[in-house]
Write a structure and sequence with these properties.
Order of helices and strands: HHEEEHEHEHHEHEEHEEHEHEHHHH
Structural class: alpha/beta
Bound molecules: nicotinamide-adenine-dinucleotide
Number of helices: 14
Number of strands: 12
Shape: globular
Length: 416
Amino acid sequence: MTENLDPFEISQMQLYNACKLRGYDGEIYNSLSQPERFVEIKITMKMDDNSLKTFKGFRSQYNSARGPMKGGIRWHPDETAALVKALSAWMTWKCACADIPLGGSKGGIICNPKEMSNRELETLARSYIRKLADFLGPNIDVPAPDVYTNPQIMAWMMDEYETIVRKHAPSVITGKPLPLGGSAGRSIATAKGGSYCIREAARNIGLDLKGARVVIQGYGNAGSWVAKILQDDYNCKIIAVSDSKGGIYNNNGIDAYAAKEQKKRASTVVGLKGTQEITNEEIFELECDILVPAALENVITRKNSQNINCKIIAELANGPTTPAGDEILFKNDILVIPDFLCNAGGVIVSYFEMVQGYYQYFWNEAKVFTALKRIITQAYNSVVHKAKEYNSNYRMGAYLIAIERVINAMKLRGWL
Ligand code: NAD
């Protein structure tokens, strides 16, 4: 049953369980279970071949009690309103769990950027901002890149916003290119934050990271960077990786850089010399120490979680595990570092980018990573502590911390 829920229903179910565990009443749950504002837009534009195409876009602004809302923009053919709402809820809990002074939001456009030219991508980016400019701003809601959007797209969006408001406003968007006020370390930040969490989790369970066997599903920004970091900084052995076209396996280890080169060359990791091809289903059942879902949502389910054979799952992707999958993993004593803790490095460094943008004074990478490590390690340890207090999994521990902070801010404002 729960396997048929859409991502927003899953996020509501997780929230409901957390409210129940903490003893909050139904009205508190109701006050947290819907976005403050949800905007749906239509963009019609001329394509390079002179044909007209109409795209549907969304912005979900979930909760602003703790500060301006913050959330990425996804461009994907399977984007839905339910997914955008779910992701905006998770952004709210993510910022609160990391204790940075931001609320949560998310946006998206249903499109296939892989089939579009640079000019078409630019027109789409600028149109999205024109339609939503009244609802965005450094003190209102601040977008960032997510699946299939990148720093160049953020640059066009920032430029469009600044053209509309007729002044510089770099903190309206994060994940910008460095020459336009991006932060050092932003492109690695999600993976770096995830690796700090993995380090803490390994300590918790007494796992030596040297030689630890790692499997990664999804080899884009988050997945490929975490492979490089785990290989270079912790001497882990990457034994399998995958992307949308399939996966590769080598029991003796895959070089993270060679896999990235292969993906650049062939648009997929598949075909890398010295590796054996495996499917995206098989990759979840490989025996390993650390499994990193770094692609899309709902991939660890009732169906496959019983066969997962690892010690730690580090959820770099948003929403990779269904509630039924979660229950099985908890029973099987697998330590799951929940998405909105594990992948919080991206938004933490985005927050640093906003701060640097306000002051027009920029930090070096060492300063960014020192501050990131302190914030995410503190968040990780408070989640462990909370989960122990409530005898729950870490996802519930993270929810309890986040919702307590959001409710407190809402109460202080007089909203509750
Ligand atoms: P990306 O677009 O750079 O990479 C996505 C990767 O997933 C690609 O390699 C793609 O081929 C692969 N993929 C797509 N469908 C797949 C499938 N069915 N099976 C296997 N692989 C598949 O995106 P990203 O920025 O790396 O984001 C990945 C996940 O991490 C998303 O859930 C995103 O929301 C989450 N995340 C990313 C950031 C960030 O800063 N990049 C921050 C927080 C969360």
